[in-house]
Amino acid sequence: MPTPQSSFMKHRGRINQHLSDRKRLTVGAIADPSTLSIKPADCDLVELRLDSLGTGENVHRFAKECPLPLLITARGSEEGGQSNWSKKEREHAYRAFLPYAALIDIELRDFEPLDSIIDDAKKLGITVIGSLHDFEATPELAFLTEKIDPKADLHKFALMAQSPNDIRKHLDIFEGLSGRALSVMGMGPLGAAARPLMAEAGSLLNYGFLGTTPTAPNQWPVRLLKATLSI
Predict the structure, then answer these.
(1) Domain 4-229 class?
(2) Contacts made by residues 77-81, CB under 8 angstroms, sequence distance 24+
(3) Residue 33: Cβ within 10 Å count
(4) Per-residue pLDDT reduced to its tens digit, 199-217
(5) What are phi and psi of 112, to 5 degrees?
(6) Quick one: which of 51, 50, 48 has its CA closest to 68?
(7) Fewest Cβ atoms closer than 10 Å to its Cβ: which of 52, 68, 153, 154?
(8) Which of 181-185, 208-212, 217-221 has the lowest mean pLDDT?
């Protein structure tokens, strides 16, 4: 009978292989504690937003028992997170959930202060996502290129889309950073409408929410997103 730890290791290996093969995956994000009581479905992996959920026993229990690979995120308030944790508190949260993680998501600006978490994750075979959020606009490709960090296994860009030209700029990211594992998504009504287009263009991790609470502006329910991407 497989041990829980061996299951977590298999999840890490499976995610690493999927990303190496550039396989498109759907992420079911959980930010509402009430959602921890449901069995996750209609997604390929589950994101636990620790900044919303906390690190209590109910969250640990879900992480131990979740049948799907886990993405662990502890977002800072300046990046849209729902807690006022200090960087040290976020470091403790990440470290407490590393044993369960197949992936972790850390904002690119925090790679240096959280470098010990990144190094420990790498030793465990955990995929490290370096993310950048802009809730006001879509930066130019040159700006995003400057933010690339070699320690990130995948770069995630979540950008506000104010116009069709912003959607074009989102698509240009795949050409400008070709060869890299990317997750690109638009925020706002226009960006949300274009999420299937980003997946078709090469976005490897495509986020929707489980339960009733979105974790980003105009986010899709993951059930609808997965069904749409399967057409």
Answers:
(1) alpha beta
(2) 77/51, 79/107, 79/131, 79/133, 80/133, 80/135, 80/216, 81/49, 81/51, 81/52
(3) 16
(4) 999 999 999 999 988 888 7
(5) -70, -50
(6) 48
(7) 68
(8) 217-221
